[in-house]
Design a protein that fits this description.
Elements: H1 4-13, E1 17-21, H2 23-27, H3 40-43, H4 49-54, H5 56-75, H6 80-90, E2 94-99, H7 105-108, E3 116-118, E4 121-128, E5 134-135, H8 137-141, E6 160-164, H9 173-185, E7 188-192, H10 203-210, E8 214-219, E9 231-234, H11 237-250
Parallel strand pairs: 1-2, 1-7, 2-3, 7-8, 8-9
Antiparallel strand pairs: 4-5, 4-6
Length: 251
């Protein structure tokens, strides 16, 4: 393992950094982790893609859950962790960001869309599963009042679904391919706020390390590959990033 100062030195010197984020970076913005106590999945069984497509009851249940989290999602703002990543890009150091999150907070922090790969899609768009027309989710959700039916496409009548990847739905090929390319280019690969237990996304840090990249893991809890990493910090991401920014500036 390298020291904090050595990690800071690697960040100062590198212009080939890839960052990989999970739910842990968003919890510090007030968005509950689906898997944590009190999260959606601790109270409800996930609706699979096959159930969503085949069952009106399942679609209504999924939209009810969206209504339940709507205000939390809308009020969430980027935190120090998001802005740390955005600053790496401003300094010309970031190849790209790979995220498992669907909340769009990386975009809101000012990171350009071309530098972001959202492996699990985005809840800031709604798509028609038939014609692929895109909708503003607020315009869709505000129509869901009373005993509503699941929303349908205005153009073709197809099923509307949040542009997120559900259980049983294929991972987006283009996003996976871009994430793989960035991972193979990385000289420094930073994991922030991921338990690294969801495959195939969790394989990217391993690929980066095997290719010779410095692998740093910043997470509140241990991950299965901590022993494989070059640097590990267990604790709050925002607090770490604020201290680390000062250390980089002083170097």
């Amino acid at each position: 393992m390298i020291t904090l100062e050595e990690f800071a030195g690697a960040i100062r010197e590198s212009r080939e950094i890839v960052v990989f984020t999970g739910a842990g970076i968003s919890t510090e913005s007030g968005i509950p982790d689906f898997r944590s106590p009190g999260g959606i999945w601790s109270r409800y069984r996930p609706v699979t893609f096959q159930e969503y497509v085949s069952s009106e009851e399942s679609r209504i249940e999924a939209w009810k859950r969206r209504l339940e989290t709507r205000e939390t999602d809308k009020n969430a703002k980027p935190n120090a962790g998001h802005y740390f990543i955005q600053s790496l890009n401003e300094k010309g150091k970031l190849i790209g960001l790979i995220t498992q999150n669907v909340d769009g907070l990386h975009s809101e922090s000012g990171l350009p869309d071309e530098k972001i790969v959202e492996l699990h899609g985005s809840n800031r768009r709604v798509l028609c599963l038939k014609c692929a027309k895109s909708y503003d989710p607020d315009k869709v959700v505000e129509r869901l009042v009373g005993r509503f039916a699941s929303p349908k496409c205005d153009d073709c009548g197809g099923i509307l679904k949040s542009a997120t990847i559900s259980f049983g739905q294929a991972m987006p090929e283009r996003a996976m391919r871009q994430a793989q390319e960035w991972t193979e280019q990385a000289r420094v690969f930073i994991v922030m706020g991921s338990s690294l237990q969801v495959q195939p996304a969790a394989s990217f840090p391993v690929v980066a390390r095997r290719n010779g990249a410095l692998l740093a893991i910043i997470n509140r809890e241990p991950t299965p590959i901590d022993d494989y990493a070059s640097f590990v910090h267990q604790g709050a991401i925002g607090e770490f990033c604020r201290r680390f920014n000062a250390l980089i500036a002083d170097g």
